[in-house]
Design a protein that fits this description.
alpha/beta, about 280 residues, globular
């Protein structure tokens, strides 16, 4: 049985020690954060690796449920990464929080979007003292079971009206290893398939479906039970149960802190002229 994960660095089909021509893995460190960038540059390498062309950034960070928080310089560096994936520096950006805010392991998207500064609604007069603000719209789209509408349909309708230059979509993710829970931030410019890691795939959010670039961000909050069994080397002779998702006992703290960290990274990326203190004041 193959592992179930949303994380590119856990993809069992990719041999990171022997990447094809047209794919490059770069590694760097900033403070306590280790960053790995997989760049898939051409169609041939995309086909071989089974992933769309684009950039996949994996940041290994201190555990969000632990005592070490991300430093300012670490968040600012990741904000630069997000900014570098955006198509321009002036157009409106639509930030979307994916997931169900009433289910803690799935609440990362709404927790994040709640703290992103929305500016699109401000008039020119209101913006004059803050003329360097970027136009940002924010949406928490809920889930199909709450709205009866596919999340992608809601986002597409909002995007058609707002006409943003790009979408930033934030979602909780599934990992293959418990060591990744709350310790990884994944960022990519190829979009996202909500629910893929938990076998509940919804319509993809990407440039093909939205007609504009989609930047995806997320933190793994769950591990599939069968994948967890495999991780610990236990062979299932006969499957006697339906798979279920496993999370951390500190998931509430993890989601709270991860949401604050991702929102700060997004705010710093979109509002270059604001400091972390400015943003904290505006979102408190």
């Amino acid at each position: 049985m193959g592992i179930r994960t949303d994380l590119v660095m856990e993809n069992e089909k990719i041999d990171f020690t022997k990447l094809p021509d047209g794919a490059v893995l770069e590694q760097e460190e900033i403070g306590n954060v280790k960053i790995q960038r997989l760049k898939i540059k051409n169609l041939k390498s995309s086909v071989i690796l089974g992933k769309p062309m684009g950039e996949y950034i994996t940041a290994t960070v201190p555990d969000f449920s632990g005592n070490i928080l991300l430093e300012n310089e670490e968040k600012e560096y990741m904000a630069e990464i997000v900014r570098g994936l955006l198509p321009d520096t002036k157009g409106t950006v639509l930030v979307v929080g994916l997931g169900n805010k009433y289910i803690t392991p799935d609440a990362l998207g709404p927790k994040t979007s709640d703290l992103v500064i929305a500016t699109r609604h401000l008039t020119e007069k209101a913006l004059k003292p803050l003329e360097n603000f970027r136009s940002v719209a924010v949406l928490s789209a809920g889930v199909l079971g709450q709205t009866g509408i596919e999340t992608a349909e809601i986002i597409k309708a909002a995007a058609d009206f707002v006409k943003p230059a790009a979408i930033i979509a934030v979602d909780a993710m599934a990992a293959a290893s418990v060591s990744r829970l709350g310790t990884t931030i994944q960022i990519s410019n190829v979009g996202i398939e909500p629910g893929a890691g938990v076998q509940n795939k919804r319509e993809a959010l990407n440039k093909d479906t939205m007609n504009i670039p989609v930047i995806a961000m997320g933190v793994p909050t769950v591990v599939d039970s069968d994948t967890l069994i495999n991780e610990y080397g236990k062979k299932q002779e006969e499957k006697t149960h339906e798979p279920f998702m496993v999370t951390s006992r500190n998931i509430d703290i993890m989601i709270e802190r991860a949401g604050k960290a991702l929102s700060m990274i997004i705010n710093l990326a979109l509002q270059e002229n604001l400091t972390e203190d400015d943003i904290s004041y505006l979102t408190c």
